[in-house]
Design brief:
Pfam families: CarboxypepD_reg, YceI. Belongs to the UPF0312 family. InterPro entries: CarboxyPept-like_regulatory, Lipid/polyisoprenoid-bd_YceI, TTHA0802/YceI-like_sf. This is Lipid/polyisoprenoid-binding YceI-like domain-containing protein. The structure is a single chain. The chain is mainly beta. The protein is built from three helices and 18 strands. It has an eight-stranded antiparallel barrel. Strands 3-2-5-6 form a four-stranded antiparallel β-sheet, with no helix packed on it. Strand 11 and strand 12 form a beta hairpin.
Length: about 300
């Protein structure tokens, strides 16, 4: 349904009376609408909404809220379960009854922060390279995406008793970049891009963790690449802790993502385009898929 119809509802409501949703309905159908807001009462665009028929447990409607936090659907008469969810927040569920020819007044639903997931024990956790990947996706100018990764790196997570005080450090060998194309990889290592002879390492050092709810965190820190340092935040999902692998070591896992702008690191793509060199676009999606092992005197380093 067109979300512009909901704007009509908002302006049509009168003080002291339930607002009426003006939606053109197919014969024999009814309508449901909801407004999803965050813990501060602000509209939540992009929240996921799933409407399931209680009679046969089939999904009747599914989508995301608009920038104003609204979602609406026309449905056959019947009983439905409506589930609303967003990253870092506790999902909410409503049961609604849809009648033919009727549009229910929009339901306002507030999503609350999810309980913090149990975190790994304090101490030092070392990246396990065979089970860790540092990947990137860049737009090939005028064409498809380029997928690549760095194959040589070291990293550690130092978990403090208070998670906000924890630290992460990562060192990547810039020359280990690979995209599956030897000519392109050599060019990316050259002075046009990473200039690995002058700047052999890419370093990230965190400054703080910020809890976003549930398993979601923002990891703030400084990335140094090509001789330039920039502050950035990584959207991080903590994936849990488990005993397993070699000799049943204690392991934890996390997935962190961010977007880099190459010109922030003096990698000037426009000058290369002017010279007819079309390699990758101005933004790069960076992803760290990390598995780390608890560092003790008995297991001082990850296994070879």
């Amino acid at each position: 349904m067109a979300f512009g119809l909901l704007r009509r509802w908002r302006s049509a409501g009168t003080s002291g009376a339930a607002p009426v949703l003006s939606v053109p309905l197919p014969d024999g159908a009814g309508a449901f609408a909801c407004e999803v807001v965050d813990p501060t009462g602000q509209p939540m665009g992009g929240a996921e909404v799933t409407v399931t028929a209680l009679g046969n447990h089939r999904i009747a409607a599914q989508g995301t809220t608009d920038p104003y936090g609204f979602f609406t659907a026309t449905l056959p008469p019947g009983s439905y379960s409506v589930r609303m969810m967003a990253d870092g927040l506790t999902p909410a569920r409503e049961t609604v009854e849809i009648a033919a020819g009727a549009a229910l007044p929009p339901t306002r639903v507030m999503l609350h922060p999810a309980p913090q997931q149990e975190l790994p024990p304090p101490g030092t956790w070392l990246f396990d390279p065979p089970h860790t990947a540092i990947r990137f996706i860049a737009k090939h100018v005028g064409m498809a995406h380029v997928h690549g990764r760095f194959t040589n790196f070291d990293g550690a997570i130092r978990v403090a008793p208070t998670m906000a005080d924890s630290q992460v450090s990562v060192r990547i060998e810039a020359a280990s970049i690979t995209t599956g194309n030897k000519t392109r990889d050599n060019h990316l290592r050259s002075a046009d891009f990473l200039d690995v002879e002058r700047y052999p390492y890419i370093d990230f050092v965190s400054s703080r963790f910020v809890f976003q709810g549930g398993s979601k965190w923002t990891l703030h820190g400084t990335l140094t690449m090509h001789g330039t340092s920039r502050s950035l935040g990584l959207d991080t999902t903590y994936l849990g802790t488990v005993n397993g692998g070699y000799d049943q070591e204690l392991r934890c896992a996390a997935l962190a993502k961010t977007e880099l702008h190459r010109e922030d690191f003096t990698l000037n793509w426009r000058s290369m385009l002017a010279r007819g060199i079309a390699v990758v676009g101005p933004t790069v999606q960076l992803e760290l898929d990390v598995q780390a092992m608890y560092h003790t005197h008995d297991t001082p380093t990850p296994p070879e």
